[in-house]
Description:
Elements: E1 4-8, E2 13-19, E3 22-28, E4 31-35, E5 39-45, E6 49-58, E7 64-75, H1 78-82, E8 88-89, H2 99-119, H3 124-129, H4 131-143, H5 146-151, E9 153-165, H6 167-284, H7 288-298, H8 301-314, H9 326-337
Antiparallel strand pairs: 1-4, 2-3, 2-5, 5-8, 6-7, 7-9
Helix pairs in contact: 2-4
Amino acid sequence: MFGIHYIKSAPTQHIIHYQAGLRKHSGTGQSFFYFQPTSSIVLIPANSADVPYIFNEISSDFQPVTVQGQLTYRINKPEQIAALLDYSISPAGKYLSDDPQKLAVRLVNLLQVSTRAEIQRMTLKQAVRGSQEIATAVLAGFKTNVDLDNLGVEVLAVTIEAIRPTPETSRALEAEAREDLLRRADQAIYERRNSAVEQERLIKENELSTEIAVEEKKRQIRETKINADLAVEAREQQVRESKLAGQIKLELDRVKLVAARTQNLQTEADAQAYTIDASLRPLRDLDPEMLQMLAVQSVEPRLMVSMALKEIAKNAGKIGNLNISPDLLTSLMAKDSA
């Protein structure tokens, strides 16, 4: 009524009231009356805003890619941006210019420049795989961007949803990746088979090693038994040798004993022979007839008769006839029988 209006802003809206070229009100969540013919109302959003984007770039290996994502920003210096862009509104609450839409375009343009610098340093494969790396680098560049600071805008987040090559290139990459996966699958099968063969070889080697160890233990057992038998045999041989040595020593002692006995007997015989010889030495010089005479005196009649017959036999040539009575022979024979 009469050009007087009432306005009320939300807590997420920064409102500036100019009247006659002078600033009357400024802040978020303001409410006041103003005279419309002489007033200008500037309404700047203080909340965060999301700007989707999509553009094409070229990688370092001259492959085109499409970058798609979202930019999040907010106006942190409303009065500064109000001096650069027209955010004035009509009494109906609509912007009087298209400057608010230009801010998003400016931000996307700055984003594209920063993204281009990052992608041009990468190959196609690196760019496709490095979306997060690119987003991080672009956001770090926005934090130190002087143009944004002069504009009064702060970029909160940069999100790259996808970096896609052209359909033909994408199919080529898919084919390459598919072939690589197939090669890896073949390699995995080959390695698995090799592993199975290797495991089987190890199992056989272990079995052979076990058999060798068992045979080695058996050989050690046999050698131990043989050594034990040899040790027993050696001990028995030592016992036999000791017994034989004892017997040899005994026999040697017996030989010495026999030799000593023989020597004693020989000495005794020599002594007896010497005694007999000494006793017979006087008789060796006597006449045999004298010895016979002496023997006749000391022997029995039968010996005397035999000696007489011996003398007769010696002088048989001188005797013509010799008569021996049967009674004499009978008496001699009877005596022998008795």
